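pinned: reference chain
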Amino acid sequence: MVVDYAIAVTNTPGRIRDAMFDRLRAHFTQAQIVELTLRIALCGFFNRFNDALQVAGTVPAEAWARTGGGARGAAPGQ
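pinned: its structure tokens
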């Protein structure tokens, strides 16, 4: 459900149907849905920004997460 929402926000943000929001509301508060939407949109922004500048990440997110990078407060590549 969250993955479907992330895809919809990324690819067709103006066409998200009420049924998807109904499914989200079954698990999240309105504030949480707003936060989720913000985070999805920010990730899309950073991806497009980095793509436009041809900036490649130095550490794949999966590897960074497995090493506990987020627990130390460091961002990928730092």
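why pinned: The chain has one domain: 2-72. Helices lie at 2-11, 18-25, 30-52, 61-66.
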